[in-house]
Specification:
- With 275 residues, the protein is an alpha/beta fold.
- Helices cover 41% and strands 13% of the residues.
- Strands 6-5-4-3-2-1-8-7 form an 8-stranded parallel sheet.
Amino acid sequence: MRLPLLLASLLLPAALSAQSSSALTLWKAGSPAFGIFVPSERAPGATDANGKRLPPLYTADGAKALGANPLHDYLFLNLEGAYDVEAVKAMVAGLKASSGHPTLLVRIPTIEAAGAELTRARVKEVLALGAEGVVIPHVRSASEAALAVSFFTDLRANVWSPKNPAGTVIAMLMIEDKGAVAEMQAIAAVPGYSLLSCGIGSLTRDMGGDAPGAETACKNVRDAGAKLGMPSMMTANDKTIGDRLAKGYLGLLMAGTAEQTDAIIRTGRELAKRK
């Protein structure tokens, strides 16, 4: 499915300008894009001298290596639990020095946890540093979706959306709660953002462990967005990649070791008939 072509677009200040990135080019063509959660370079469970658990570590060298992997259409930097501007800086620097050009998407903390003004400031900061997109998790209602979109429009960010196919910035909203599922149609109808996606892990927990019910809800979220011209992202593994593609998810997101994620992406690309 190709997004409808319209002439209107928003202008982006020079500090926020961006070229169409790898995943965005694929999504504009209605093709699936494959990406990974950016892995921490710190050993799991590492602690300091006092036994305090150390936070995730992301470096420019690590980002450069991830960017050089031709299987990566996008990289998903998950900062929902703890926002880390130095991690964004390191990722952008490493990708600039890399031979590849995967899209960098940064998931920031929820509006509920951080508040509207801090979230607004973080969207501005992430884009100004050079990331191609920002992910807003746990959007709870249509009014909160409209608030999230305002963070981008207030910056005059050139957001790619069904009404702005020439856009270069990705704004992704996530539905991850039962209450938001009930409002999915109204959330989807809010104009001005790029992807409507479902957080299957969080939603399953919020639904009391009802994994089949959460899968159905996520497919309904995908369908709601697709009817309006928006792709949807979903996690996948070696057992689910075929089903995810068959259900029309265009953002396939993997977690695991490099060996594991490379193997899943190769399988996905073969199923999608991508070289």
